[in-house]
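Researcher: Going back to the complex we discussed earlier. I've cleaned up the inputs and rechecked each line, so this should be the final set. Can you rerun the prediction on the complete assembly and write out the structure?
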Amino acid sequence: MRHQVIIAGLGDTESALEDSRSIPEMVLAAVQTALADAGIDYGAIDSVVTASVDLFDGITASNIAVTEVVGAVMKPETRISADGLAAIAHGACQIWSGAYETVLVVAHAKTSMARYQELTQWAMDPIHVQPLGVDFLTCAGLQARLLAHGDAGADRRWAQIAADRRGRASRPLAPASSVEEILASKPVALPLRQGMCAPMGDGACAIVLRGAATGAQGPVLRGIGYDLEPHALGDRDLTHWHGLERALQRACKTAELQRAYAHFDFAEPSCLFAHEEELFTAAVKLREDTEISADGGLLAACVPVVAGMSRLATATRQLRGAEDGGRRALVHGTWGPVAQGQVVAILEGTPL
Amino acid sequence: MRPAAIIGTGQTDHGRCRDDVSQPELIREAANRALADADISPADVDAVVLANMEMFEGRALPELWVGEGAFANRKPCLKVATGGTSGTSSCIAGFHQAASGLFDVVLVIGFEKHSEGHTQTGMALTDPFWDRGVASGALGNFALSISQYMAERGVTREQAARVAVKSRRNAAMNPHAHLKDANATIEDVMSSRVLAHPVRLMDMCPQSDGAAAIVIASAEHAAKLCSRPAWIKAAATRHEQPYIGDIDRRLLTMRTLRDAAQSVYARTGIREPLKQLDVAEIYEPVTYAELAWYEVLGFCAEGEAGRLIEDGITEMGGELPVNPSGGVLCANPVGATGVIRVAEAAAQILRRAGAHQIDGARTALATGYGVYAWADALILGSTP
Amino acid sequence: MNERISVDVEMRQSWRYASGAAMERFCEGLRNKRIEALRCEGCGRRYLPPRPFCGNCHLHLSHWVPVAQEGVLEAWTVVCLPFLDGRTGTVRNGPYGMGLVRLDGADTTLNHYLAETDPSRLAVGLRVRAAWRDDLRGAIDDILHFEVMQ
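Model: Rerun complete. Updated structure for the full complex:
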């Protein structure tokens, strides 16, 4: 019997185009909110899992910037270089293994520090691809072109998705705009236009995971699954998120849910580009009554690395706010070019 | 804690410049050897954990490109990066994953290809506010700590040189080692070039190209797949304040490694490590650190490390052989270095260490070291 | 055997690091040759360089204390290899002295350069004093190096 993992506390900074605080100051704010939310102090933490990417931070072993504020001095800390939701997956493994009962998971990134899009070139195959100047945005443009081929209404639908998501956000990092404005916005990697892309900013997120034996209350992390697609775009079917299908299959297996019957009341996808939301809904075969991206999602405000964890925070708030309590949410994160890395988590609220 | 065990290990032939292979090919070399050693196929692997310090190659999210070499395509794959402890921490991550019930078989691979990047740039990109303007890399920082260690404990240059001689001699029996010399002498070490007073060239670890892999299986699968698995009995990680000036007399106190070791000893009933351990593979980036770790790990009393090496206690035939592989001083592909420690410790339990096998090894210690004072410790054993 | 082919890619990147409130005040002090540490109200440790948080006690640091410009050399070396300055990419050629200096009034040590490069004249426990550059800029290298006191 697997230990139950509870989302016991969460804290995040408000995403900003530029957060003037230092990385430790920003992360400290998120961590202290999460600890207060969980009703614990640093002493209760058995282990810390951090997520950050050295090249984005411009620091070798960039978790040195946060060691003190995440409470990792004389404690176990594991740093995962991927989306923060993958760090959540590892934190859950630590609890399921019986090694630890309370795990603090923390992600941060500041895209304002450097030329983020240019840095993503350094994640591409340096022999065959990087010398061509290909970055994550270029890859997304290629994928969008493939999807739009023979589909005359694609760009209008994508503009509609972006306008809708940004319109429901309380503080989007790009101004809310109409479909027409998005269709007329700056071309960045055609058919993708600026308005169809997630605006990037700075932020941090901290989540406290606890085993049920601690008596912690909150939504249960029922299942988790992740996957790494091949790197070469030519080796992949860019019209489907097969990696997400595999990740979800694994998550359902962990959750002991039958994939075909798994229903989600809420879905929090990580969509960096509007067309990705269509890939998401197709891959997970969502029913129409699933509420997607309650707070506007990444198309309204995106902090790389933090992204999937920010989705987990939103889903947790949704479940906490659900009147009957007993709802289910699907949380999603990605990393790499055209979502090469995929991770999903299945959350369930506690029935009242 | 649910048990898990190592059922196979594999290493590349580490060297200064492996320009005969790309990074994914280098990884594939270690992965193939580990899978062959475990007698399983890539399809049997449920998840992959990678370890690498990507700034040394100037990369971001390297698992995206090299994952294919690790058989990670269409599988769950994560990368662990915590400086020098990346390798040992990735082994512990794989251990927790295999013990979680989420996966039955986890492949852990650490790699570094120093020849393809600029290691000094990676080392120099430390804390930007104070350290970066006055940094002198691992070399200068170790030299600083060594001055304290020598002044307080009376360790001599000759005693440190003995560590280098032992390493080079042991490495001569290890087909994977980068630097080996069965005939190295104390004079060779003491007359090698001064890098940062008092550290000489042969006192310091090299920068290597290489990869190392281990296969970890859940208890049921380990028992099914392997007649004599190397059980992971206990593991501990301790991080420390990241500024060197915060750490009081680093080599002397090293509270992280001390506490991690005490934690794994306590959980495995080890009270007298020198007697109860059969072999140790410890992360010694510099000769003096190996001596300091003898004291921190409880192999001897404080101030006795020099005597331990002089008396041959930690030599191949001694009471507790330390680093039969030749250690970090003879092969240092950073992201792989910690995995090598665990793989070598496991190979001793698996009885597959070849010419540097310690007869009858049943209990082994592996340690990791990184940043200024981060530490990992693992105890492996022949029974669950 | 075919010729081995390698692909060269050159990296030119820059980052801008927000230093935080504690470092801002500290650097402003340096502009006036004033060195200040932050004291932890929990363990009493006086941190130099100052930072917002005590990693041991998990407490915010806000209590500033003055620190002298001289102190004890706790550790030293003479580096004989050239080393990169991680801020600018320029190379500092050896030999150059490095030390961990515990300034009077601080509990942590500062990692900094030493003016002395002769190993026979350096020892743990010597008294050293900060030497300042002429054009103070409110940056950490306003202190050029530390000099051994006679």
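Model: Worth noting: Chain A touches chain B through 62 residues (CB under 8 Å).
Researcher: Good, that matches what I expected from the previous run.
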